[in-house]
């Protein structure tokens, strides 16, 4: 009787990898949606913001539960393997799952990296003074620094080194951390095979490959913000 349910459970656990992916995507989308809303409206009401935080906490909760589910299953499997009488798989699982769940409270969920990351980004965005400074004095933002975009005392590079036009879809080279516009790279790679990072003084001698490039959403956000702000400033100056 123990064989069949174990097999089913193991298969279910295998399928959970997909759920992990969905949850990670959900968390990312929640953060991005929150930042987009804040960008449009800094005075986003508290209620909406708190709703969005709760959505994030819900994802965190689901991910945590998933972890408990895995641990409880592992625990039940070992218990069953170690006993030759009809130990009740379901009961063992339930007990362990309950034990793990009761040890997790709401405060623990708030310690989750994705949740803290979201709060940090919201805080960063709600400090408009700082954001203005970043653009006018080229002081690096923590976000940009984290994604390796900026060298201290230098401008944030928002132009694609291939086409020398403002990037719209920045991708970052994971090897040398330089950024290019995705469309430009695709175009370059279609034209010839051996394309290297065009940044002046770059040590990366490896030929460019799409596999080495990741989307740089922080830089994209920065470029969009810059476009809006400089657009606004220009209008004001002309009046
Ligand atoms: Zn480079």
Automatic annotation (TrEMBL):
Protein family: Belongs to the NSE2 family.
Localization, UniProt: Nucleus
Protein name: E3 SUMO-protein ligase NSE2
Keyword Zinc-finger: yes
Matching Pfam families: zf-Nse
Superkingdom assignment: Eukaryota
SUPFAM superfamilies referenced in this protein's UniProt entry, alphabetically: RING/U-box (SSF57850)
Keywords noted in UniProt: Metal-binding, Nucleus, Transferase, Ubl conjugation pathway, Zinc, Zinc-finger
Gene3D superfamilies noted in UniProt: Zinc/RING finger domain, C3HC4 (zinc finger)
CDD domains with a match to the protein in the record: SPL-RING_NSE2
